[in-house]
Predict the structure of TetR family transcriptional regulator.
Amino acid sequence: MESTLGTPFPVEEPDHDETGPDGADEKSDELLPRRRPTQERSKRKFDALLASSRDLLTDVGFESFTCEEVAARAGLPIGTLYQFFGNKYVIVCELSRQDLRGVQHELADFDGEIPSLDWLRFLDRFLDHLAGLWTSDRSRREVWLAMQSTPATRATGVIHEKAFAAQVERMLAPLTPRTPRAKRMLLAEVLVHVVYSMLNFSVQDGQSHEDAVAELKRLMGAYLLVTEKESESRR
C-alpha cells in the first residue's frame, strides 16, 4: 500500500531541511524534499530516484504511481527514498521543479533578444523549442497532470509558475517600459499559464500538435503586440 508519511529513516548525512512531515515547507505552501543531498553518493541516489519516478509516471500514470515501485526500479531500499521524499506528491513536485529549471536555463539563453525588431521570430523559435520538449519527453505532460491532483501540489505548481513568470517579466521590461511592474507581472503570469496549458493540450490523444502550437503562436504574438502598443501609448 502506498505510504504517505512514515517515520523519518536514519540518514547518511545531516538533515537541515525545514519541511513538515508531509513535505510542505513550514514557511510556505510549497512541497519540498525532506533534504537535498550534498555528498556525491547521496546525489546519485537522489537522481536515480527521480529518473525512476519519471519513467514510472510515464509508464503507469500518477494514480498507479507508488513510492515502493520507484525505489524498486531505482534498485534502492524504500528507506532511502523516504530519507529524501515524504510521499509521492513531493516527488512529483520535485520533477516539476526539475522541468522548470531546465526551461528557465533555456529561456536565459534567449534573453537579450527582446526588444529587437525581430522579437516575434524569437517568440516562434522559443515556442517551437518548448513544443519539441513536450513531444520528445512524454513525462512532461504526466508531471503536469499529476501536479493538478491535490490542493497541495496545485499550490506548489502556482509557486513554480510565479517563479517562471518573474523571469519572463524581467524579459518583457524593455518591450513594455511604460507598463507598471505589477501589471507586467500579471501579463507574464498569463503568458506562462497559457503556454503551459496549451502545450499540454497539444499532446493530448487525437490532437494535432502542430495545429495547437500554431494557434499558441498566434495567441502569444497578438497578446504581446497589444501589450507593446499599450505600453507605448502610456504617458
Q: What stands out?
A: The two ends are 62 Å apart (CA to CA). Residues 92-233 form a domain with the Tetracycline Repressor; domain 2 fold (CATH 1.10.357.10).
